[in-house]
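User: What would this chain look like folded?
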Amino acid sequence: PSTHASAGRIPASFLAALSADALKGKRLGVLRNYFGTAPEDQEVTTIVNRAVETMKQAGAEVIDVNIPGLDELLLNSSLINAEFKFALADYLAAHADTPVRSLGEILDLGLYHVELETGLRTRNTVEQRNGEEYRRAMIKRAALHQAIVAILDEYRLSAMIYPTLRRKAARIGEPQLGTNCQLSSHSGLPALGLPAGFTDDGVPVGMDMLGKDFSDADLLSMGF
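Assistant: Here's the prediction, encoded as structure tokens.
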């Protein structure tokens, strides 16, 4: 359904939309809900704020915005647990030479890394495709989409900006806290990841620019 909905709305080339002056006159909202408040978050906040100032110097008009009830809108809006088991089975069924045919078989044979076991077993307990968990998540996603578009419309914004991660990337093997990656994937709205700068010890920091449905070309041009 998503593919059919995009018919005729995707340009033949995104390259043609790129412009070095794309930020001039654009209104951008800095999504303050998505900036961390803990001491560990302040380095990323400073770097992203500095990048926003650079965008202002390139001609953008920037205002602070908040999405009311954002945490509640995002709560239980993930489809990963509801879809994983069935999507994996579909993938395996499409390839005749796979050594296993289901997530349950992978678990029974112990063919997984121990760090993944809890998540995989949780996803294997889902009994029905498109069940109640899936239905509730889809309702939350529709509400999230509507709330974001309402803010974009109310403030006449071309896009929203926020850190990709609220704090510096964790070392491999350590938990990563402060991810903001759900906003685009759970709302179905396009977002472009952009480099914002580097921490004092050289770790790259990113920010996301999120826009309305089918605003991909505008996002790419502003990022450019």
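The longest strand covers residues 191-198. If you want, I can go into more detail on any region.
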